[in-house]
Amino acid sequence: MSETIHPVTQAALAITRTTAEQYQAAHARSLADPDGFWRDQIGRLDWYRAPTVMGNWSWDPVDIKWFEDGVINASWNCLDRWAEADHTRTAIIWEADDPKAKTRRLSYAELRDEVTRMANALVALGVDKGDRVTIYMPMIPEAAMAMLACARIGAVHSVVFGGFSAESLAGRIEDAQSRFIITADEGRRGGKPIPLKAIADEACDKAEAAGVNVEAMLVIRHTGGAISMVEDRDHWWHEIRAEVPATCTPEPMNAEDPLFILYTSGSTGKPKGVLHSTAGYLLWANLTFETVFDYRAGEIFWCTADVGWVTGHSYIVYGPLSAGATVLMFEGVPSWPANDRFWQVIDKHKVNIFYTAPTALRAIMRDGDEPVNRHDLSSLRLLGTVGEPINPEAWNWYHRVVGKGQLPIVDTWWQTETGGALITPLPGATPLKAGSASWPFFGIEPALVEADGSLIAWTPGTEISGNLVLLRSWPGQARTVFGDHERFTQTYFTAYRGRYFTGDGARRDADGYWWITGRVDDVINVSGHRMGTAEVESALVAHPDVAEAAVVGFPHDIKGQGIYAYVTLNAGVEASDALAAALKATVRAEIGGIAVPDHIHLTPALPKTRSGKIMRRILRKIAENEFGALGDTSTLADPTVVDALIEGRLNR
Ligand code: WTA
C-alpha cells in the first residue's frame, strides 16, 4: 500500500482553520476533559433549555445519554434560525435527473415555510409526537422537508431508500409499527421512472397482512405519472398544502427524545432499526460537518449520497442545514446521460466541496481523465469520500485529476451507528496518506483488539492490526435498536464487553495513522452499501426450488465487494441459467436491486463440518479464486465437495 505522505498543500493551508498542532491539542483535551470540551460546543445549537449535563453513559449495561436535561428542536436549528438571520440565504439547490430540467432553489425561508406546512399536514393526518413516519422518497427537496416536518412535531422518521423492494419496505413499516407514509408518485434515476407509490401500496398491503395498518399516506406529485389513490388513506401533498396553516410552532423536545430510526444490515437476521436521539446526533452532525468540510458561509456543498442512507441524513440534511449551509441535492446518477455528469454538475453550480463514494470514482475513472477535464472544476476546494475503504489508485486519481494535485481529500470513516464521521482528516491540518482515514475526530478514542478482546498496544514506529473498537461514547452515537435494546447490546457491546465493536478491521501504521481494512463480520460492503449475507441467503431460500444458500463477498473492481451466492437446489430440480436468473429476480423482489448477487453458483453440495456447519472461510477463498489458500479442510464431512466447487468456479 502506498504510504506517501501528501503534505498539507498551499491550497489546503489557505483554507484551514486548524493546524495539526491545534488538532492534537484539541483532541487531547476532548479526551482529558470531555465535559469542558462539550460545554464549549453546545452553543453551536439553539436550545429552549441549554443542558447542564454533558455525557452520562455506560456501556455495561448499555445506557447512553448526552445533554440529557437539554430541550431543543432539530427543525428550528436547521431552518428558522437561518431564515430569521438571512431571509434570502439558499438552503437547497436541486439538480434533476434530467440535465435539461429546471434547477430548483429554496431559500431557508422558503424551506421553513414548506416544512411548517408539511408538519401541519402530518398533524392533520393524525400524526402525534413519538409516532413513526416512514419516508420512501426520491431525491427531491420534499424528502428533506418530510424529515424536518417530522422533527418539527416530534415524530420519528424512518427513511427507507427508494431502491428497496415492497417486501423490504413492508418489513421496515412493520418493525417500526409505522402508521404513516410519505412518498411520491414516482422517482426518476438515469432517465427511468421508479414506481414508488405503487411499491408503497404493495408494502401497505403486506404490512396490513402482518397486522400493521397504514392509516395515511401523503403523496408528493413529482413526475405526474399515473398512480392510484386509495380513498380516505391517500392524500396529495399539493392539495393538503393549500388547506393547512403556514406556521407551526416547533415542539420542544428533550435532548434524548428519538429523532429518527434508520434500518441497517448486520451479520445476523433482519436489518436493525438503529435509533438516534435528538441533541447529541444533531450536535455531532453539525460539528463534524463544519470542521471536516471546513465549511464557509455561502459555499456550495455537494454530498452525492441518497437521503435513504445515513450519509444523506447527516451530510445532506442535518449537518449542513444546522450549519446554515447551501447544499446541492442531486436526483440522478453519475453515469447518465453520460459519465461526466458529476463534473458537469460541479461546473454548472460552482460546487465548492464535493463528497462521494469510492465506488463512484472507480466506475468513472475507467473512462480516463478526459470526461473530467472537459469541465471547469476551479470552484472546488475540498474533496471527500465515504462508505468503504478507498484504494490508493482511486485516491490518487481523485487527487490528481479532480483535485489537480492540490485539493485535500477527507476520507471519512463512520457508520450508521456513529451518526457522523469518527476517523477522518481535517483539511489543512492533516498530512494525507492515500487510503488512510488518518486520525480520530474530537472525543473519539479508537483501539485495536485481538479476537480474544485483549487490547493491542501501539507505540510510535510500530505497526499493529486487529479489530476496531471504540473506548468511549460520543454525542452522535446511536442509543439503541428500535424495540430491541437487548439486540443493541448483543450486537455492539458483547464481543468485547464494555467496548463498542465496529465490525471493521483496521491497522495503525508507524506514524499513528488509522487504515480501515473492511468488515470482519458477515456484512458485505457493496458499492458502499451494507448488505448482510444472512439477509441475501434468506431471500434466496424464499425461492421454492432452493434447498440451501451460502453468501459471501468477493473483491470487485468497481463495487469494492461483490456478492457471491452458493446455492443448492431441492431434489429433482435441474440447474440452469434460467433458474439462476430467476433466483436473482427473487432477491430483487425480496430486498432490492442492490442485493442481487453478481454470481449464483449452483452446486450439488456445500462444504460442511461433520456437525453440519457451513465452512464459509472455504467459500470465501473459492469466490476469491484463492484455491491454494483453502487452509485446513480435514474437518469437512465430505472433502470432495471442495473439488467440485473449485471446478464449478473455474468453469464460470
Ligand atoms: C465502511 C456509511 C473505510 C465500514 C457512513 C463501516 C468505510 C461501514 C469508510 C458503515 C471509510 C464507511 N473507509 N470503510 N472512509 N466509511 N466505511 O453504516 O466498513 O452504511 O463499518 O455508514 O462502511 O456503513 P454505513
List the helices and strands and how they pair.
Blueprint: E1 5-6, H1 10-15, H2 20-32, H3 34-41, E2 55-59, E3 62-66, E4 71-72, H4 74-85, E5 90-95, E6 104-107, H5 108-124, E7 132-136, H6 141-153, E8 156-159, H7 166-176, E9 180-184, E10 187-189, E11 192-194, H8 196-209, E12 216-220, E13 234-236, H9 237-243, E14 253-254, E15 258-264, E16 272-277, H10 278-292, E17 300-303, H11 310-322, E18 326-330, H12 341-349, E19 353-356, H13 358-365, H14 370-373, E20 382-386, H15 392-402, E21 409-412, E22 432-433, E23 446-449, E24 464-470, E25 480-481, H16 485-493, E26 500-508, E27 514-519, E28 523-526, E29 529-532, H17 533-541, E30 546-556, E31 560-569, H18 577-590, E32 599-602, H19 616-623, H20 640-650
Parallel strand pairs: 5-18, 7-8, 7-9, 8-15, 9-12, 12-13, 17-18, 17-19, 19-20, 20-21, 31-32
Antiparallel strand pairs: 1-22, 2-3, 4-14, 5-6, 10-11, 15-16, 16-25, 23-24, 24-26, 26-27, 28-29, 30-31
